Please model this.
Amino acid sequence: MTQRTILITGASGEIGHGLISRLSGTPGVRLIAMDLRDVPESIQGKVESAHQGDICDRAFVEHVMSLHRVNEVMHLAALLSTSAERAPEQAHEVNVQGTFNLMRTAAEQAQAYGDPIRFVFPSTIAIYGVEPREKDTIPPVREFQALRPITMYGANKLYCEALGRYYGRYYRSLTRGDRRPPLDFRCLRLPGIISAETVPVGGTSDYVPEMIHAAARGEPCTCFVRAETSLPWMMMPECVDAILQLAEAPVLSRCVYNVASFSATAGTFADAVRRHFPGAEIRFEPNEGRQSLVDTWPADVDCVRAREDWGFTTRWTLDEAMTEYIVPAVRARYGSTTPPEGAAS
Ligand SMILES: NC(=O)c1ccc[n+]([C@@H]2O[C@H](COP(=O)([O-])OP(=O)(O)OC[C@H]3O[C@@H](n4cnc5c(N)ncnc54)[C@H](O)[C@@H]3O)[C@@H](O)[C@H]2O)c1
Model:
């Protein structure tokens, strides 16, 4: 069996938790975790080695990668959209320079070992910039359309997609001869992700997970966008499925793919949450700044390429996700006493 030694950056974050929990114990897989924050004990127990440090520190990145002879990178570490908009210069350092450090180090090691390193990169719907007045009427956006991000985060991610394509396809094209490019770069443009296990911080799609977790804790929630605001979504288990499906797919003809499960408005989610948690207090108080960012993100994305090229599939509609994933998991987490939908009948 081929040994996979996977470096997961941003391991202490939301997707890091989901990914490591799923991959841990897989035969032939060694997991190496990296994060600026302390890697929690629950995660440390699931990985071979955990390293606390900054991806902007190139010496640190080189040290960790060479120590473990990594042959796959899942690069999750980033400053998310709202955090990035509050500290754009720092976001550029982390999201661009940090990503460059990882790609460059991976490329050098791939050349030294004579084998390309697979590099999986979660990008985002924030790389799109649709006209707000057309957002709800245009067809689901395809990968090559509306590439006009208005945020530092979106600009950073779009550039890093291009950097990954360069290392994966065109690296040193004038002098490389017939040697393969050093990275096998694969990228998913993720929609808003909803996890029942973790609460997000610093994203601009956090309003849906915030209303779910608040309702399960019996706390009121203020939604920072208008009720009619629509975005594409995906549940955390589906996000982990998609990352792994893409990482494990055979040779691909493209490197960037949209993925999403369904599109829904904030109001639709609020109604679904109220059905399952009848006492839920959800108020809509749009924050103009955050609203203006979401207004440029597409209401829906076209995932045909991902379905055709590597068999991307999803598990749930919104209602199924509430019933089969979110509600049981948040009740288990918070021990909510609110009766489930239809429990009285
Ligand atoms: N969660 C979503 O809805 C969503 C949507 C689209 C794309 N993404 C992308 O998926 C990836 C993971 O997202 P997430 O939701 O797990 O984010 P998160 O904020 O929960 O986790 C990010 C992790 O990166 C770490 N980090 C930040 N700066 C670092 C640095 N300089 N060095 C090392 N580690 C650093 C943080 O400590 C954090 O643990 C990100 O690249 C994000 O852009 C997420």
